[in-house]
Amino acid sequence: MEKDTGTLKIEWAGQFMPVLSRIREQFVKEQPLHGVTIGMALHVEAKTANLVMTLAAGGAEVYITGCNPLSTQDDVAQALNRVPHVHCFAERGCSVEEYYAAIDKVLDAKPSVTIDDGMDLIHYIHTKRRELLSTVIGGCEETTTGIHRLHAMAAEGKLEFPVVAVNDTPMKHHFDNVHGTGESVLSAVMITTNVLIAGKYLVVAGYGFCGRGLARKAHGLGAKVIVTEVDPRKALEAHMDGFLVMSMAEAARLGDIFVTVSGNAHVINSTHFSQLKDGAILANAGHFNVEIDIDWLEAHASGKESRDGIDTYLLDGKRIHILAEGRLVNLATPKGMGHPAEVMDLSFALQALCARYITEHGKELSGGVYEVPEAIDVQVADQKLASLGITIDTLSDEQKTYLSNWDAGT
């Protein structure tokens, strides 16, 4: 029988996710999530489906919806609903009301573990569904924006169960954020617009791990990269890495393509729109659609024309092109596929192992944000190297002693 497109996508991605495949085999044997109900709000696409299937293979009952109204691949969501012990409520293009109705459906299952990308599940539990606080053992958070929100909650003493900051581990920062964001954002911009990157001024707003990966990849394609920042240390780092550094007010007049990746609101706003060149292309790679002030454009532009993945606003006789409604450009454009499978293999391997960790240890922890245990991070790196056939050195007993001894000198 011919397979449906969603299943084919899931199987294709799975071929390039050897670490998660090994973890799935381990989970099938050990059943570490037996009897656990997991609630998830993630981008529902092929790589995520492989994580969901790994959790279900480990004994969990999984309920999942999207974490962005435009990032769901409907054929993948439909395929997930044919997987035993998986219940998917995500739908591409849903309204805000439908989005939160799906969040409610996930929470109606009374999950004991949450897995978030952006913290919407955790926020909803703490504000709208507080009766579930006695049910949840703990959670995992996937992305920078979600971690910022969690730390703000924890600082106010309002985070009432433990959450593992999967985003903040080296295996996430240096691979998912740098390489995943860098390649997938540029791929989405190019396939949506069919414009050349080489020779253009490409403005990167924010020089965190995602921003530096994007800047590096854009430079490799021949772009003249401009970085804008508010942190003087990151700005200096960008300068030393060979990029032009300036304020957004200056960059607005020069840029051909703009990508916001700051995690903050209105990084490109009314003070910048009037300075843009005719035909400037604006995209967002931060989690929420707040980095470009589209509400202001909607209110003040004299016209708007829409095509697949592009809204063009006419302002003072100039065309301003916004990709994916200002949402995550690498997932929300019609042909956006998200991060490459090899990268998400590492991030979702971390998620699977952290879900197991919080299941086994969550009851021992108080409310707050916790780092990924180093042993889990190292395990994922080891398994990835093994899948690539790469061997590395190990410390000798003498070297271990030297590194742990304060008495050795010149």
From TrEMBL:
Record-linked InterPro entries: Adenosylhomocyst_ase-like_sf, Adenosylhomocysteinase-like, Ado_hCys_hydrolase_NAD-bd, NAD(P)-bd_dom_sf, S-Ado-L-homoCys_hydrolase_CS
Keyword terms of this UniProt record: Hydrolase, NAD, One-carbon metabolism
GO-annotated molecular function: adenosylhomocysteinase activity
Cofactor or coenzyme needed: NAD(+)
EC number: 3.13.2.1
Keyword check for Ribonucleoprotein: no
GO terms for biological process, alphabetical: one-carbon metabolic process; S-adenosylmethionine cycle
PROSITE patterns on file: ADOHCYASE_1, ADOHCYASE_2
Record CDD domains: SAHH
Top-rank taxon, per record: Archaea
Cofactor notes: Binds 1 NAD(+) per subunit.
Pfam family, one: AdoHcyase_NAD
Residues involved in NAD(+) binding: 143-145, 208-213, 229, 285-287, 330, 339
GO (cellular component) term, any one: cytosol
Annotated S-adenosyl-L-homocysteine hydrolase NAD binding domain residues: 177-336
Zinc-finger found in the keyword field: no
PANTHER family named in the record: ADENOSYLHOMOCYSTEINASE
Similarity comment text for this entry: Belongs to the adenosylhomocysteinase family.
Protein name as it appears in the record: Adenosylhomocysteinase
Annotated source species: Methanosphaerula palustris (strain ATCC BAA-1556 / DSM 19958 / E1-9c)
